[in-house]
Each structure stands twice: as structure tokens, then as C-alpha cells.
Amino acid sequence: YGARVLSASSDMSLAVYDGKDGSEAASKKLHQGSIFGAAWSPDSARIATASADKTVGIFDAATLDEVAAVSLGTRVEDMQVGCIWMAEGIVSYSLGGALSIVDPANPSAPPRVQVGHNRPIASGVYAPSVGRYITGSFASISDSAAPRGVMRSWDLGEGVAAPFAGEAEHSSRIVKMVLTAAGSLVSVGLDDAAVWSNVSPPAAYAKVALDACPTDLSAGGDICLALTANSEVLVLGAAKVDARQKLAFDATWVVTRILGLDLQIKGKKKTAWSGVFWEGADERDVQGYELKMP
Is the per-residue pLDDT at 259 higher than 80? Predict the structure, then answer.
């Protein structure tokens, strides 16, 4: 140890120095972005680098010639900010919080990627149909950057998470998530929107704008009730707002109760349901705020 020392720089170059006299043994520009991390291979024959150009590089330690370059994305959050070389492979950490494991013996193979949350989790729900736990949070690459909603699907046996795909994701932090009887995941966020997602495979498929910021969400059967900051309760059906009810008080949370009764509504047989609302610990008049499907 200490026979050679490496130095990675924001000028996209890396240098190797003699550990005894400090003389430069090799120096070269290796990336198209700042190098934020570098690590020796266990045998000190190669060097791995993590760069702002969203790649992990593998270089010959003597000549700094490139052995392999692995691209890990195209977004800002895919910038690689640190790496270590372990027996399992090269582990690189991205600005967005993803861990990628690159096989140095086969760098062309798709890397194993582990995602999670780099901000507090706001809501979670268990999906028994797939045996996975779904968590909702937000991601932000800096304290000043605008956050976006993030959902993860966790394998409880392996402790490994999968990201949600789809274009209908939240553009701000998630407030709450619920699961309907049919297995659809419904979430509301600070982007004043409700999003509907499948849990297997995890993907968001519909997004509906709300009139105000949601503060709570509840599911009963296939019906969801969303409470908004303007004291309104929204009935969320199949990827749309079916009905709305203005409250005469400022509610803090909402619960959906299924009554299990059949009745005729506009000639169609449907299950009756009602919303029960509380302000703090005081239960309000249910009849005064009963909601029915139109």
C-alpha cells in the first residue's frame, strides 16, 4: 500500500503518482465531465472512475488507457458521484441515489442497479397480490432543485426495489398512496394531481389534475376519496374525478366506509357507499356529508 497514489479532478483528468517521491507516473484526460470518484482494483492493475458524464470508466493503471466505459443514463441525476471496487464488482453511486454494480470481467453486460429513496418516505402500502411493499417519496438532486415524486416497489424477501415506469408520474413530492380492491395504486401529490399506477409491473398509467393541493387520501373497494386544502372531498373513480363535495368545515383527514348495500341509482345497480369525515377527533354528521355516486 502507498506505492502509488491516484488523484481524480474536476478537469476530467486523472493522475497517478509515485507514493515515495511524489513524481508523476501518468496523467490523462479520461472523461467528458468532472471525475467525482476513483478506486483501485484489488490487484492495483486497473482503476475505476465515476464521472459527471454519467459513465463509469475502467482504465489500465500503468498507462491510463481505457479498458471499458459503461454508460449509466442520460439524466442529470444519472451523474456518477462516487465508486468503490469490491469483490462483487465496481459499485458506483449516482446523484439521484441509485447504486449500480458493474461487472469488470464483463463490462458490456447490463449493470445491476439498486434504487431507493434519498429523501424521507411519505407513504407506504402493501400490495398482497404481488407480495411487495410500495413506498412514495420525492427526489431532488439539491436543496434548491424542484423535487419530483418517486415510487418504489420493494421485494420484501430480497430487500431490492424497482422503480415505477410510465410518463404519468408526479412532478412533486407524494402526499399519500392507497390501494383499491381491484389492485390499482392511487397516489396524490403536491403537484395538485392524482396518479393511477399498476403494481405489476410497476408503472404509472394515468394522471388527473386536481383543483387544490390534496391533504389526505382514503380507499374503500374501488372508490377513493381525496381531501383537498380548499375543504373539498373528491370522489376518484377509474382515473377520473367522479364527484366532489364542498365541506362546511376544515377537515384534516378522510376515511372511506363501504356499506355493502345494493340500491338503484339512475337505473344501474351499484354498491352504496358513504364518506365519514372527522375534524380532529370529533366525528361530524355523516348524513350531512354523505356522498353518492352520480
Answer: no
